[in-house]
TrEMBL record, chains A, B:
UniProt keyword annotation of Nucleotide-binding present: no
Key word Cytoplasm present: no
Domain of life from the UniProt record: Bacteria
Annotated Alcohol dehydrogenase-like N-terminal domain residues: 25-124
Similarity annotation: Belongs to the zinc-containing alcohol dehydrogenase family.
Protein name: Zinc-dependent alcohol dehydrogenase family protein
Domain (Alcohol dehydrogenase-like C-terminal): residue spans on this chain: 175-285
Lineage start: Bacteria, Bacillati, Actinomycetota, Actinomycetes, Micrococcales
Reported cofactor(s): Zn(2+)
Keywords: Metal-binding, Oxidoreductase, Zinc
PROSITE patterns hit by this protein: ADH_ZINC
Length: 340, 340
């Protein structure tokens, strides 16, 4: 089969690999229908994380080809959406709602790779969810988004306690931030303030439910958000970048007793303990528990209540993956879908 | 009247000051019955915070002498317990349950001072709670504890989501940590693991509800707690020290998806963003919303369901305050009660 490999930072190739096989009775092998490139794929691409022949891709939808003897909830022929983290679904961490840190957790990125024609998915019951039937073609981008970027934005919005009467600030207008806007809107937030300087992302943000767009950054953004919230700050904030500046902006934008969901993978960030203390903001990050949200997200997509697939602004065949990485690196694309 | 002043780090005197008067219609003037010395008073005492003629004391119980025209819920003659932070009770932050960060918040410590014969308490309705009647003398230490140390431990336990079926780890065997144990027990925690190396504090911890005592510190403590919790870590953790080591011990002792309530005022602490992210622990600190808990805590004390006053192991008259500071600084006392 064909698969995307990151040989080294900045070097992405599409190459032949052996077809995956069932190894454990809890495995499934799926034929990938569509995959995509994640903002987090840019960390190794830019050399901020190691990249030595990484198997790329962790977002995926596809059709089950074969399952191990112990798999109960998906069967050959099912169209499935899977989480970007393998999870058993049965351990104490999974059952408490945090499958992204399952005791058997394994990142799909790196060792499995779904920017490929096929993939072996361990713990298929705990990782995959079948759609109600074969999806119409126009639903595929949205179902694919549920695999990580939507699920991650959703987690951030849930953690920020988005809901009726609440003002939610969103730091980061990348794909995850935009999905955070959509999630906050779906969860009933009254006001959604998006930080963005890009006209196209501002437009998409408004389409997803942003009520206010601010162009300030850092302390100026904090001051603007306070101005918009009686001097108090947002009830909840979504951080979707992962830098020191964005994290501090997010913390300072949130009122005392408010909630901050941070889903930008942190790079070189140190949070001053005294500021975290006196902020009295409740903070939680981590690999999103996408599997927890998948049944609900799939249903919302199936019912055409949400259209997160709008976040993809470039579609390429798998063979042209390198072009997709370049486009995201150079910010000519927000998010790239790869057809397989 | 007589009052305790910290002239400079390490120098505590009892001196004459003018009697406080009603200034605002929302004020009350109270005659202090008992006050105490807080672990946090040791930061300026030891020079880790500024101390230039500070009015000391922020925990207090007493009898209302006079109230301003706008005060509705307490009246002269009432016995009252007050929070260590002044709060209006009416702003959005107060009504959301975080009076420690009220928009009118003012620390009693520093500018008011309750290690004194009398004190003017602004926003009396939002800060003070009257007891059901005049208390028996033996209840005074426990009512006094509710003013901060119990309320702070309670907040940490609530934030750690102590409850039935939960394992709660407590880092810090000072007065706040011990109150955290008591709170976790009252909230129904199944297992309470206290880190302590002092026999007397271990004994008090057990009396308050600790089921396990561990003597390890740092990474060894983390390993021990994982050993006691199927390798997962505690469901919730209370941090009651405020150092880098204690904060990291607390974070690492908590399972993914668990909750960390940190109430040790942070000094020179920096939390690595990536570790906070991957921990997936929900973290919240801040000045405890004691006023939120006071009605419930007073009732539990009144009904003799809890005896947090046990945490005082030295009682001195106000005039001997300096001796009390020395005893706490040298750890010959856990917590000192000052009778007025």
């Amino acid at each position: 089969m064909r698969a995307v490999i990151m040989d080294a930072p900045g070097t992405v190739t599409v190459t032949d690999r052996e077809d995956p096989q069932i190894v454990e009775p809890t495995d499934a092998v799926i034929r990938i229908t569509a995959a995509c490139i994640c903002g987090s794929d840019l960390w190794p691409y830019r050399g901020a994380e190691e990249a030595d022949h990484l198997l790329m891709g962790h977002e995926y939808v596809g059709v089950v080809e074969e399952v191990g003897a112990a798999v109960k909830t998906v069967k050959p022929g099912d169209f499935v959406v899977g989480s970007f983290v393998i999870s058993c679904g049965e351990c104490e961490i999974c059952t408490a709602g945090f499958p992204g840190r399952c005791v058997h957790a394994e990142f799909v990125h790196g060792g499995i790779g779904t920017q490929a024609e096929k993939a072996r998915i361990p713990y298929a019951d705990g990782t995959l969810v079948a759609t109600p039937g074969q999806p119409d073609a126009d639903l595929i981008p949205s179902l694919l988004a549920a695999s990580d970027v939507l699920g991650t934005g959703w987690y951030a919005a849930v953690t920020a306690e988005a809901g009726p009467g609440k003002t939610i600030a969103v730091v980061g207008d990348g794909a995850v931030g935009l999905m955070g806007v959509l999630a906050a809107q779906q969860l009933g937030a009254e006001r959604i303030i998006l930080s963005s300087r890009h006209a196209d992302r501002q437009a998409l943000g408004r389409e997803f439910g942003a009520t206010d767009i601010i162009e300030e950054r850092g302390d100026a953004a904090v001051a603007r958000i306070k101005e918009l919230t009686n001097g108090l700050g947002a009830h909840g904030t979504i951080e979707a970048v992962g830098t020191q500046e964005s994290m501090m902006q997010a913390l300072r934008s949130t009122r005392p007793g408010g909630n901050l969901g941070f889903v930008g993978v942190q790079h070189d960030v140190a949070i001053p303990g005294d500021e975290l203390f006196f902020s009295q903001v409740r903070v939680q990050g981590g690999p999103a528990p996408v599997r927890r949200f998948l049944p609900d997200l799939i249903q919302r997509i199936w019912d055409r209540k949400i259209n997160p697939g709008r976040v993809f602004d470039l579609t390429l065949p798998l063979e042209q993956a390198a072009e997709g990485y370049r486009a995201m690196d150079q910010r000519t694309a927000t998010k790239v879908l790869l057809t397989v």
